[in-house]
Amino acid sequence: MPNVMNISVAHIRRTLQESYSAQEAANLSRIVCCEILGQTAVDYYLGKDIILSPKEMQDLDGILARLHNFEPIQYIQGTARFLERSYHVAPGVLIPRPETEELVETMLKEIASDARVLDIGTGSGCIAVSLSKAFPDAKVTAWDISDEALNIARRNNDMLGGNVRFLRQNVLTYTPGDSECYDVIVSNPPYVTESEKQTMERNVLDWEPFSALFVPDNDPLLFYRRIAELGKTMLAPGGRLYFEINRAYGEATATMLCEQGYTNLQVLKDISGNDRIVIAER
Ligand SMILES: C[S@@+](CC[C@H](N)C(=O)[O-])C[C@H]1O[C@@H](n2cnc3c(N)ncnc32)[C@H](O)[C@@H]1O
């Protein structure tokens, strides 16, 4: 074979260790070798060399340069896994997180299969599409303020065969119509406070959309309060709110919802033991 080059797994891992911890470099090199370059898992763990054409070598250099620039691997691959499905992602949209999978798993156990559901701040569409796929009789509507996110969410819905209606809406300024009624409103809105920026990794801060992440320090419950207000007219009696929250604000979110007249409050912890999900009934 003319002009082929041998590249070792150890070389890729060593290169990545210039920018990442040993553990992160190992994870990333496995993804690069197995998922991008097509090496089998057995060959990867045996440390076998990968044979690349000059073009493939050039592509690999490009990928490693992007990783050194802390671009998330999901943006490089163009996909992220969420509850066993692959979603298209790009820098205009938040990469779905495992905590959000826990939120959807909770909902899958609790909501009626023909529920009218509104997902506020749908991003990649991961929550809305998962619910629509699990419950074909549900009527799922999803809002986002970002056209870029909505385009990606629509593409995911089409690609995965969901049946979600997507609308561009700003939840902070939205005025509900008389006939609008949902059984469930779910939201994973922006909830990271500005002061938490200092604790965040570069792959999030430099790459993921600020409008998907941050709320002002002086109003961390901004989105939850607004959605709760809307819920008082848009939720059917007995209808439920499902929120993913900043772990620091479980009690504050529950108190705010109580003050707004919601009942049966639950604050659930995620797999790491942090307050992460709040559920309330109208
Ligand atoms: C934390 S992301 C969640 C994305 C997705 N639901 C998920 O769980 O991966 C928050 C989303 O809310 C959207 N958003 C921000 N401000 C909004 C607003 N005022 N009205 C509607 N959506 C908004 C962002 O564009 C972003 O897609």
From TrEMBL:
It comes from the Bacteria. Residues 10-78 form the Release factor glutamine methyltransferase N-terminal domain. It holds the Pfam family PrmC_N. InterPro entries: DNA_methylase_N6_adenine_CS (IPR002052), HemK-like (IPR004556), N5-glutamine_MTase (IPR050320), PrmC_N (IPR040758), RF_methyltr_PrmC (IPR019874), SAM-dependent_MTases_sf (IPR029063), Small_mtfrase_dom (IPR007848). S-adenosyl-L-methionine binds at G121, T122, G123, S124, G125, D144, N188. One of its GO terms (biological process) is methylation. Its EC number is 2.1.1.297. Substrate binds at N188, P189, P190, Y191. This is Release factor glutamine methyltransferase. It comes from Bacteroides clarus YIT 12056.
